[in-house]
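User: My collaborator sent over this chain with a note saying "see what the structure looks like." That's all I know about it. Can you take a look?
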Amino acid sequence: MSHKKSRHAKDLPAVAPTREGDLTTPSLKPQDEAKLAQLLTKLQPQRKEALVPMSAAKARRVLATPVARRTQPPIETLKALRQVLNSPANVLILDLEFYGTGAENTHVGQLAGRIFGRHEQFNYTVFQPSDMAPVQQLKFLKTTNLTYQEAIKFDLDTTMRKIQHFIQRQPIHYLLSYDNHFDLHVLNGEAQRHQWPTERCFWQQIQLIDLAAILKTDALNGKAMVSLRSLVGLLGLRRELPFHEAQNDVEYINRVLQIYALDANQNLLQ
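Assistant: Without extra context I'll predict from the sequence alone. Here is the result:
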């Protein structure tokens, strides 16, 4: 602080506080109030400079800059998986079923999800008549017992909006699936076809865990990947539900995770 500012600060008299309820407030004489006002006036340019509003152009640049998403270390071992499963983190188990004529012409037919350790879950079957063969449309109508006019409300875009709302209602820290490379390929293809905004592509915003890949590297010594059906059998779990239905596969994955949450260090696959 300069000598001039120090002199003004010294010229201010000592103020005896007075009590008003629980608050301590100063009592100043008129001449002291004038000195205080004079000092505040000298400080005013500095105060104004600190409160200069951001220009509209700069504000647009700031808003357009993406916020870096904080990610945790990748989950690649059973020990790390066990730590996640026993932590407060929300792990969304996700499974998809598809239909189509090839890798580049494959569409999402069913999506199911459940938060591990909780009851929150969803199960959606998708009806996209423009992408489905007549036999596929008929199968959907018979399975769901819906009329055609009712079924067209179950389009993929509406379904993804519902899942987005589900995720927004509670923070999802990890997205876990079993052998997810094809799932991600198909989801990214659907996103391009439907021109979804980034916020709709939830699988690109949440840290991924591939349970099949973890088991391959940490329990099978890098050997061939085991199917979910085989894994459930190896672990001695009930197999009363049909496989390759999204909701059932989510249930099976949930049962497997319950096993590994108890002791992920135990080599359950011999």
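A starting point for your reply to your collaborator: Residues 1-25, 45-51 have pLDDT under 50 and may be disordered.
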